[in-house]
Every structure is written in C-alpha cells, then in structure tokens.
TrEMBL record:
UniProt-listed InterPro entries: OSBP_sf, Oxysterol-bd
Name recorded for this polypeptide: OSBL9 protein
Species, as recorded: Pycnonotus jocosus
Gene Ontology molecular function, alphabetical: sterol binding
Source taxon at top rank: Eukaryota
Record-level GO cellular component terms: cytosol; Golgi apparatus; membrane
A Pfam family the protein falls into: Oxysterol_BP
Amino acid sequence: MSIGVHNIGQGCVTCLDHDEHYILTFPNGYGRQVNALIGIFIFNTLSILTVPWIELGGECSISCSKTGYNASIVFHTKPFYGGKKHRITAEIFSPNDKKPFCSIEGEWNGVMYAKYSTGENAVFIDTKKMPTIKKKVRKLEDQDDFESRCLWKDVTYNLK
C-alpha cells in the first residue's frame, strides 16, 4: 500500500557568491498508505491502517570539486513496526580525509543535530524555524517548451 519513486542521475547546485558547484544525488521518495481502502478490503481490518505520509529513503551524496568537501547522507525509512519517520544521518568529510569531521542526525523535516570531531555538539539546523522563501519562476510565456512548468501546465491546470 505504497508507491515509490527511485530517482536516478544527479543535480548541480551553483553557489554564485563563492563560485562553487555542488554535485548531488537524490533520495528515493515514497507515498505510504496511499490507498487505505485497499487495505480494508485486502486485510479486512482497520488496525493496520495508518494516516498516509510521504517519506524519503536511500543514500545520497554531495561533493564540491573546488573545495574537495563531500557528504554522505542516508534517509532512513520507517520500519514496519516501531521506529520514527523522516530520520536522517550524514557524515561530512574534509578533502582527502576518510574520517568525517562532522556527523549529523535528526529529522530532515525537523531538527538536525551536529556532532563534531572536536566533541562539540550543536543544533545543525531547525527546519521549522527557517523562513519560507517564495520561489522566483519566470512567467510561462517566457519559458521554453520543455521547461517543467510549461511542459506540465495542462496537468497542473486540471489538477487544480
């Protein structure tokens, strides 16, 4: 009673202020309990049904060729019994180092904590306190035919 999307390929994020390019891979996406009615008919019980949720799962990486820094990130899926949703762990490495100088754990949609090789512990980021920034997107008439919003405009219109 779930659906999964396995992302392949990589993306590039450019930090213009520092002339840095980051190559990253993406986690898989899952919609869990996407159709609770199927569960009722198949299992004939309500006790197994939960509220639907979206989760990320799998390993990702981020690297910067200019600085040599890189990170390994794991999005943990919720176990069938027990466990928590939205867990993430990560390790950040300095250039040419095999041992991370920082380990991160927490929830990707909540608070993440950093533990540095110096022994220092700190809040890495609290996503709930981050401001929402409005996207800057060119008008549809200014986009090329195969840019995402232009390509999917009819689907978006019909979904709305």
